[in-house]
Amino acid sequence: MEAFSRKAYTYADYEKLPEGPAYQLIDGDLIMTPSPTPFHQIILGRMYSSLAGFVHSRKLGMVFLSPIDVYFSETETYQPDIIFVSHQRRLLIGEKKIEGAPDLVVEILSPGTGYYDLTHKRSVYQASGVKEYWIIDPQERSIEVLENAGNEFSGLGQGDREGRSRF
Prior knowledge:
alpha+beta, tt1808, chain A, 7-stranded mixed β-sheet, 12 strands, 24% helix
């Protein structure tokens, strides 16, 4: 009996995709990302506006809104909802993609990608050195803020729909 082997896609394969539906390269698989819901986009717009205003007013770096490719390895290229790259790490900003771990990644969970955001992508973010990872759950109306200390995420804080913080 022959073992099933799948083709592991690489960044070179990903780069050849035509414009159109959004894909992410997760663990060597091309994963199509469905269009976000209106509520997802409302959260995204508000979060981006607040974060970008804060960063710009203090001249801390650059905030990017999806879709933008963040390259972690030949088999891992994602399009997080929002990323921040500090001025000190601006060399990560390439002509076509962010080439390495941003300082901050914000993911807004959705049915199509939430599983990856909470499992595989979280592990890659952690191992790659993303300094902070914010996970927003629209259904629960909550946010979890994780800090990377020694390539291990630990909870920095949580907030819920009533505005209560849990640190």
